[in-house]
Write a sequence for this structure.
């Protein structure tokens, strides 16, 4: 009888331990699934396509077919072989993939523009490394056929001006169907794509070609404006137009206070004053979107031309990445910023879950105490130290 009793107690103990382990595994999996999958849906589902002014007022209400749903994001900086630690790659690229795929599924944009620095090491990567980076890009930013995605060249994709070569520009163009200085027209809306790295103004071959194309496009657009007054383009490029610093930029995703007053270097942080004025004179764009600084900023040029600097899309560059959603017609533009999950929020959830797990495990080996009383005892001991 005693032996049977011991066996029964042993069986009960093993069963109890198994149930406890199962609970721990379920808890851990729940936290993991939430932090790596569900949190993106919880956050991005709160974003919405902005209403146009006339749509809100009920004046000349545009139909859904005339509104182009557009997403603008910038500076993913997919890591390469040289600077990219495998864990850093895994963490940040998973974040961008889940964010992008969730946004596509929930928001159903018609067109997406990536405003440069798609890669981190495109400026010096070998052909093999480039192919590997492109393969990862195509996985992260996969999109259905009904959604168009356009990549715009940045300095990390082909190098700064003195690192830029025709070879690097051509291999980028092949992957992204990118053509420097071209106009993409959708639903009567003109998007002007500019290779801002080539606007050095030193008459290099690539720079001369780029400037000649821009002059030709400006003539064509100016002729169009006489017939269609709404043909003014939306200018898309990597470098922002010239501004002294980010001192006037506001918002939670603007540059940190200690960097706001740092003076920008022309042709490195921003375009030169000369190149900026040329673009404004030639095209009179109705809106400008740029990247490069990794922080948000809104600037008014010549008193009536807005420029939006789009923050980085990656946790590697900022804790609170975001993208811009635009409802655009041939006459109106309305923008809305959609934030992604904050990295420190995800870390805090994991840390909290880890603490709860630790308490549950320790309390399990103190069977006479509930987890609540166990925590109380720990706090009492801590205060006594």
């Amino acid at each position: 009888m005693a032996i049977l009793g011991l066996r029964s107690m042993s069986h009960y103990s093993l069963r109890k331990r198994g149930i406890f382990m199962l609970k721990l595994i379920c808890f851990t999996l729940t936290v993991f699934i939430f932090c790596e999958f569900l949190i993106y849906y919880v956050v991005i589902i709160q974003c919405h396509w902005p209403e146009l002014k006339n749509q809100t007022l009920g004046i000349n209400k545009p139909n859904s077919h005339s509104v182009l749903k557009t997403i603008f994001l910038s500076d993913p900086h997919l890591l390469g072989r040289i600077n990219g630690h495998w864990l850093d790659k895994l963490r940040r690229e998973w974040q961008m993939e889940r964010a992008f795929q969730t946004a596509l599924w929930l928001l159903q944009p018609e067109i997406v523009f990536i405003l440069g620095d798609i890669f981190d090491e495109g400026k010096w990567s070998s052909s093999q490394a480039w192919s590997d980076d492109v393969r990862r890009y195509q996985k992260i930013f996969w999109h259905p056929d009904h959604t168009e995605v356009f990549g715009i060249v940045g300095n990390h994709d082909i190098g700064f001006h003195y690192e830029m070569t025709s070879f690097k520009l051509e291999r980028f163009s092949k992957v992204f169907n990118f053509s420097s200085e071209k106009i993409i027209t959708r639903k009567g809306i003109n998007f002007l794509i500019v290779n801002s790295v080539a606007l050095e103004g030193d008459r290099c071959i690539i720079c001369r070609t780029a400037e000649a194309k821009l002059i030709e496009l400006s003539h064509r657009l100016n002729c169009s404006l006489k017939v269609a007054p709404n043909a003014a383009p939306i200018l898309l490029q990597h470098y922002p137009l010239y501004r002294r610093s980010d001192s006037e930029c506001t918002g939670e995703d603007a540059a940190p206070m200690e960097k706001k007053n740092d003076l920008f270097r022309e042709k490195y942080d921003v375009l030169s004053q000369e190149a900026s004025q040329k673009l404004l004179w030639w095209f009179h764009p109705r809106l400008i979107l740029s990247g490069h600084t990794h922080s948000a900023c809104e600037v008014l040029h010549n008193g009536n031309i807005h420029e939006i600097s789009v923050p980085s899309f990656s946790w590697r560059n900022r804790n609170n990445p975001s993208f811009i959603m635009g409802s655009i017609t041939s006459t109106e533009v309305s923008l809305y910023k959609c934030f992604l999950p904050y990295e420190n929020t995800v870390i805090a959830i994991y840390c909290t879950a880890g603490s709860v797990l630790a308490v549950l495990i320790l309390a399990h080996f103190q069977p006479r105490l509930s987890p609540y009383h166990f925590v109380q005892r720990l706090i009492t001991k801590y205060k006594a130290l």
Q: What stands out?
A: The longest strand covers residues 322-328. DSSP finds eleven helices and eleven strands in the chain.
